[in-house]
Amino acid sequence: MSPASFRRLASFAAPALAVALTAAVAQAQAPAAPAAAPSWQQGRSAEQDKSTLHPFAIEVTGKAATQLPIDKLKVPAGFKVEVWVDGIPGARSMAQGDKGTIFVGTRQLKEVYAVIDRGGKREVKILLKGMESPNGIVFSKGTLYVAEHHRITRYDGIESQLDNPPAAKIVIDGLDPQNQPGHFWKFLALGPDGKLYYNVGAPGNIVMPSYFQASISRVDPKSGIAETYVQGVRNSVGFDWHPKTKQLWFTEHGRDWLGDDSPSDELNVVERKGQHFGYPYCHQGDTLDPEFGKNRSCAEFTPPVLKLGAHIAPIGTRFYTGKMFPAEYQNNIFIAFRGSWNRTVKQGYNVTRVSFDANGKPKMEPFLTGFLQDDKADPPMWGRPADVMVMRDGSMLVSDDHNGIIYRVSYAGK
């Protein structure tokens, strides 16, 4: 290149280079974009932006029962509550194996545990590691099924291989293609039809869900073929089938940031596949959403059979089918109320019993209480019920994911 040509090229390049350098410097000096708000803050009004309400973190390493006021726990006359085992950080959903092993999932952590009873002394094993919110647990015919946020896996013959678990086999994958920020954890239950039922929650507090979100779905564990069962379910982390009618009953968490007393969390029953339970248009069966409820009617949707209270966070939900408790408890529902955070005066933090009158109308009453210490404190509780499970002897286990403890409720008579 001749000197003259080089000078002409440089005369064109210099201004462009200067502009690029100026833009780069400006970009470097520009303030960083604000971080996205956590999903639990979504849906707040301008007046609520300075609210101090917030979710409560668990004790990620757990707490020994000796460090806690276990004596504060209360059950009805004739019943007894005691610590069954501690040292299970994040303990959530439970399932009992054929040989008596209790399998325990976690939501905030990455482990699945196995608890082995050796003559009254219980040993806790970390069974599976490195999982993604393995909240859902089912055991059936020698196989353990685990629901993570994005998939359901199976472990055949695992109860004979607790020290060296078999490799996971995929039942279904791709359950969270958008890596949703909220309500991604799954509850898992085996239906009377032999299919695995699981929830896919709404991806935020109050948003328009995609076609597979805000629903309860089911998958054939043999073929992996899945289908949506019901829709309009903001987030259900507990469901079970009535022992006689075989209808699915489920709890549902109402949206946040509509006030201390609205909307109520729900107990629902499914009468047919394809029902829509309202979210995001209608809450608690009679309250239209300020945004998504415009030009809609709550009459379009299936209302709850029982309003449970605002923000009480009903999760583990099971029918009592054991023989230890008195006869009037048979086929009652026990629900773990994990407790409220989106409320000035907190409530929940107990296990509630739902019974039915002669006409099948449900009513509820507290059954296991004492976790809530000060309803205006931060935090207000020392423990949080997460799941309930009926043992073969008729007693009932209650997991506490806040402390990593499982309690046992038994009945010895009045």
How would you characterize this protein structure?
- With 414 residues, the protein is mainly beta.
- The chain has 1 helix and 26 strands.
- The chain has a 4-stranded antiparallel sheet, with no helix packed on it.
- Strand 14 and strand 15 form a beta hairpin.
- About 1% of the residues have low confidence.
Query: Stretches where pLDDT falls below 50 for ≥5 residues?
Result: 16-21
| Proportion of residues in helical segments | under 10%
Strand order within the widest beta sheet: 1-26-25-24
Shape: globular
Which secondary-structure class do the elements indicate? Answer: mainly beta
What's the order of the H and E elements?
HEEEEEEEEEEEEEEEEEEEEEEEEEE
N- to C-terminal separation? 105 Å
Per-chain topology:
Elements (H helix, E strand, L loop, with lengths): L2 H27 L49 E7 L5 E6 L5 E5 L5 E7 L2 E8 L7 E5 L2 E5 L4 E5 L12 E4 L15 E3 L5 E5 L14 E5 L6 E6 L7 E3 L6 E5 L11 E6 L12 E2 L3 E2 L17 E5 L3 E6 L13 E5 L12 E7 L5 E7 L16 E6 L5 E5 L4 E7 L3
Q: What attributes characterize this protein structure?
A:
four-stranded antiparallel sheet; mainly beta; 414 residues; 1 helix; globular; single chain
Short description:
The protein has 414 residues and is mostly beta strands. It is 7% helix and 33% strand.
